[in-house]
Write a structure and sequence with these properties.
This protein is mostly beta strands and 131 residues long. 11% of the residues lie in helices and 31% in strands. The relative contact order is 0.21. Pfam families: Kringle, PAN_1.
């Protein structure tokens, strides 16, 4: 990081252009608000500021400058993808990443088997290995 340079909150997100997520499961939550930039949307999503749920993604409507914070992402059951030229989808990398970075303490992905197909040991188990 350079001196005096702030890290963009967008670095924590994977961007997919022209895509919106539609919730099929009605229990999933969305909150929207007018905001001028994707950076402002990302910052609020990362901090869960003013949200009653854990923000896993947001979609930014470039036409109306409206941010849609989502309690779900593209990997969540009960969600479908929709091509939409007005939107860009930003998903928190921690929730869509398929690999562990460092010790994996922040890993929230969906992979639960090793490369060779062996089921991973649960974090709350000391069998067959101690952590």
């Amino acid at each position: 990081e350079g001196k005096g340079k702030k890290r963009s909150p967008l670095h924590d997100f994977k961007k997919t252009g022209e895509l919106m997520l539609i919730k099929v499961n009605k229990t999933l939550e969305i909150k929207t608000k007018l905001l001028n930039t994707t950076e402002q949307c990302a910052k609020r999503c990362s901090r869960n500021k003013g949200l009653s749920f854990t923000c896993k993604a947001f979609a930014y409507d470039r036409v109306t400058k409206r941010c849609h914070w989502l309690s779900f992402n593209s990997l969540t059951n009960g969600v479908r993808k929709k091509q939409d030229h007005a939107f860009d989808l930003y998903e928190k990398k921690d929730y869509v990443r398929n690999c562990i970075i460092g010790k994996g303490a922040d890993y929230k992905g969906t992979i639960s088997v090793t490369k060779s197909g062996i089921q991973c040991q649960a974090w709350n188990s000391m069998i067959p290995h101690e952590h």
